[in-house]
Amino acid sequence: MTSPSDQLVHDPDGGMPRLLEIMRRLRDPATGCPWDIEQSFATIAPYTIEEAHEVADAIERAAWAELPGELGDLLLQVVYHAQMAEEAGLFDFATVVRGIADKMVARHPHVFGSESREKSALQQTADWERIKAAERGARAGVLEGVALGLPALTRAVKLQNRAARVGFDWPVIGQVVDKIVEEAAELVEARDHLAPEAMAEEFGDLLFVMANLARHLGVDPEAALRGTNAKFTRRFGAIEAALAAEGRKCTDSTLEEMDALWNAAKRAERGAG
To answer: Span of the secretion signal (predicted)?
Structure first.
């Protein structure tokens, strides 16, 4: 006779209770999966970040058939952390759900409360940040709570946005561009005269100001770089295809030949557009 747990685990319509039970069973010290039992918050965190990026990748590629699976993988990460927390007596999945539900209600008084919905998306964003600041507390630092685990460019923009809200920001784009020129010159000087550690620091300073320029232009630097990565991959693939048509590989050609093929691929893309 099958147990209620087995029935739930094998019920395709079991929903969230089924997924929670599967994770509980995987982590069972006596009968679970040895790999799953050994994991901790620290070892699972990189997978959580990876799964979030895979969701973003599916969206970027408009791979809608893949998106449910990627979202499921990300949901599993939440369930995994909640199960480990419950085992440690910290909190459980219901606490996670209640917390996010309460937060959404509190941060949308124009939907769930008495505030008017007659305001712009920009004003709603400002109100959202005001509520978040109140939640952090009056004594919290301006930059507190910006997650360390974010992609570096994304975190740079968030830090700059926080600083800008208290007036620490260049008022015009021209000043940001001037700073880019200054930081680029310092990077060249570091290359010629300073240690590798100093060069890395100067390179970081340049990237930080580039992220600031993206913010002033209303550009998501992560999305912009993903687009450029995709463009590079596409055009380099065109180089490889052109050489393969001649029975050659990149290692059989010169930089000048590959550069000419790159420019041909670029012209073809622009012509197709």
So the answer is: none
**CATH architecture of structural domain 4-106:** Orthogonal Bundle (1.10)
Contacts made by residues 194-199, CB under 8 angstroms, sequence distance 24+: none
The number of residues in the chain equals 273
- CB-facing half-sphere around the CA of 116: CA atoms within 13 A: 4
Interhelix angle 41-60/67-87, rounded to 10 degrees, is 160
Sign of the torsion angle spanned by Cα atoms 240, 245, 247, 248: negative
* Per-residue confidence (pLDDT) for residue 70, from 0 to 100: 97
pTM of the model: 0.64
Query: pLDDT for 198-255, tens place per residue?
Result: 889 999 999 999 999 999 999 999 889 988 999 999 999 999 999 999 999 999 999 9
Q: How far, in Å, CA of 152 to CA of 229, rounded?
A: 16
- For 209, the 3-state DSSP assignment is helix
Which CATH number applies to 141-219: 1.10.287.1080, 1.10.530.10, 3.40.50.720, 1.10.10.410?
1.10.287.1080
How far, in Å, are 97, 112, 115 from residue 108 at the CA level?
Answer: 17, 6, 9
Alpha-carbon Rg of the chain, whole angstroms? 25
Tokens 């929670």 found at: 20
* Cα dist from 72 to 15, 58, 76, 84, 156, whole Å: 12, 13, 6, 18, 29
Distance CA 256, CA 245 (A): 18
The residue with tokens 């240690």 is 195
* Low pLDDT (below 50) residues in the chain: none
| Token duo for residue 269 | 């893309």
